Amino acid sequence: MINRELFLREYGDSRDGRPPVVLLHGLFGSSTNWHSIARRLSASRRVLVPDLRNHGRSPSRAPMSYQAMADDLANLLDGQGIDLAEIVGHSMGGKVAMWLALTRPERVQALVVADMAPVTYGHGFDGVLTALRALDLD
Question: Helix %, strand %, coil % for the chain, to 5?
Fold first, then answer.
């Protein structure tokens, strides 16, 4: 199921008619990672900063895939009435941004990917994820 309810922080407006900038955080991050940059960009642009699925204040949902997160992002843009955006993604957010650009190129005016490449990465988070799953959240 596609998550249509991403938590979203909005900054600035689009008085000049340029597409908004969308900033995407990395793994284990959230929209707050981009706050200072979003504030600076908002002086001249509308800036959207979502919490991606299973991060921050957005709901937790399966599956956890780049395709699902790109679909979430497309749905977010649809919900905001945005046909075209400039997408900036860091790390995992960069993979989401690349997936959106590959599958829906008509939605992406510009693409910036930071700290990520279009290759398959392994990860070393198994120990961290096991420890997090073992936490008693009650």
Answer: 35, 20, 45
- Extract the tokens encoding 136: 């008693």
Find out whether the peptide bond into 50 is cis, omega within 30 degrees of 0: no
Q: What is the pLDDT of residues 22-80, one digit of tens each?
A: 999 999 999 999 999 999 999 999 999 999 999 999 999 999 999 999 999 999 999 99
Give CA–CA dist 2/4, Å, rounded: 6
In a 3-state reduction of DSSP, which class is residue 3? coil
What is the rounded distance in angstroms from the CA atom of residue 42 to the CA atom of residue 125?
34
Q: Contact 87/35 with Cβ under 8 angstroms?
A: no
- 64-67 long-range CB contacts below 8 Å, 24 or more apart? 66/95, 66/96, 66/98, 66/99, 67/99, 67/103
Evaluate whether 89 touches 24 at the Cβ level (below 8 Å): yes
